[in-house]
Specification:
about 35% strand, disordered C terminus, 4-stranded mixed beta sheet, 2,3-Dihydroxybiphenyl 1,2-Dioxygenase, domain 1, alpha/beta
Length: about 140
């Protein structure tokens, strides 16, 4: 059997805030929107990848409470350490930085963590052996 991960679905408290976060921090764009029963559903994807993998946001959720030392997260690869630093600075200015930028041994690389409006963490990394901008080491 072969499987392919195609989406992650999240019930969210504030649809507008979540769409804005994933657009502004992660570069995701809306690729689908519809009403479903008594709520709205929005699909977000990386530009050009809406047929490969999407975040499905479903209105009416209760959110999550971010807890220190909880390393649950969604991972986003970036093209450089400077890009990680830029996200960390933006998140710090907006009060949502939870893991300051830091270097870890392979295969973790250089990363920071940002909490979204619903309490989920998005990790932004450089130097992991994952994603479209693979690197040859942890610089």
């Amino acid at each position: 059997m072969t499987t392919t991960l195609t989406h992650i679905a999240l019930h969210v408290r504030d649809m507008d805030a979540m769409v804005a976060f994933y657009r502004d921090f992660c570069g995701l764009e809306m690729v689908h929107q519809r009403a479903h029963e008594e709520t709205s559903v929005i699909w977000l994807a990386e530009p050009g990848r809406g047929e490969e993998f999407v975040y499905v946001l479903i209105g009416g959720g209760s959110g999550h409470e971010y807890r220190e030392k909880d390393f649950s997260h969604f991972g986003f690869a970036l093209e450089s350490r400077e890009a990680v630093d830029s996200i960390a600075a933006k998140a710090e200015a907006e009060g949502c930085l939870v893991w300051p930028a830091r270097q870890e041994p392979a295969p973790i690389g250089y990363y920071c963590g940002v909490v979204d409006p619903d309490g989920n963490v998005a990790e932004f990394s450089y130097g992991q052996p994952l994603g479209p901008a693979l690197t040859t080491g942890n610089q």
